[in-house]
Amino acid sequence: MIVTRAGAHRATVSGDHGPWLVLAHGLGGAPSVWDPFVANFQTDYRVVTFAQSGSVDADPSCFSPTRHSSTLGFADDLSLLCGEMGVQDAVFVGHSVGGNAGVLAAVGNPGLFSRLVLINSSPCYVDDPEGYRGGFSRDEIETLLESITADYDAWAGGFGPLVMSNSERPEYANEFVRGLRRLDPEVAAIAFRAAFTGDFRAIFPRVDVPTLVLQSQSDPAVPMDVARWVASRIPSARLVELPTTGHFPHLIDPDGVIEVIEPFVAGSA
């Protein structure tokens, strides 16, 4: 394993030859969620993992309350990080907001990524009366965001099990809640507001690389309708409906997700 110069994001490269593979976690996550993926791909790829700004594994100085009040700030981080590391023509795998950052970086920096894998990512969480179903009304989003600032620990304790689902395996939700509670509450409030109020539907159709859209069959945060919308708007996209539940299929069933994405990453599907 080679530790890169991009110290603020605690970025690492696993593997010393082959195409680039960049893995981006979502809010409340950590680079370690990708450990099974790194173990699987590092023989044939140079696998990049990093800590998103605001996460407990990143240098606190890389989070900006202004710049990261939009997912565009996280996309800029991604482009700058890849530039510093010399990453180009990479396969990108991103979960949730990490996936959105990859889409924005791909559109803003053509040639950065050759393929995208989006796991339970949503360009907009708010329902649109014109026919888009994001999963939440605007009032529901505001209530959720107000609860974050009112009592962050209590919110984390309820939000974690809800989005993780899989109540028969509480260890996953418990670990996610612990991760959420390690975040700076003010930073978390800014980052989650950026995620839940962003609307990047106009950007997704501009993606011009092959894209694999993965979505759990049941996700409290992202309805299947969103994944179908994404797959229908990105010109070269394909949707795979995963047999998992919850917002973290790559954590609940890493082997299953790896099996789905491996041919696509290799360019054979």
Q: Main sheet, how many strands, which sense, barrel?
A: 8 strands, mixed
Q: Share of helix among residues?
A: 40-55%
How much is the average pLDDT? 95
Order of helices and strands: EEEHEHEHEHHHHEHEHH
- Strand line-up in the sheet with most strands: 1-2-4-3-5-6-7-8
Structural class: alpha/beta
Poorly predicted runs: none
Beta fraction: 15-25%
Total DSSP helices: 10
- Radius of gyration based on Cα positions: 17 Å
Alpha-carbon distance between the termini?
Answer: 29 Å
List how many beta strands DSSP finds. 8
Question: How would you portray this structure in words?
Answer:
- The protein has 269 residues and is an alpha/beta fold.
- The chain is built from ten helices and eight strands.
- An eight-stranded mixed beta sheet has the order 1-2-4-3-5-6-7-8, sandwiched between helices.
- Helix 2 packs across helix 3, helix 4 runs antiparallel to helix 7 (185-197) and helix 5 (152-164) runs antiparallel to helix 6.
- It is globular.
- The mean pLDDT is 95.
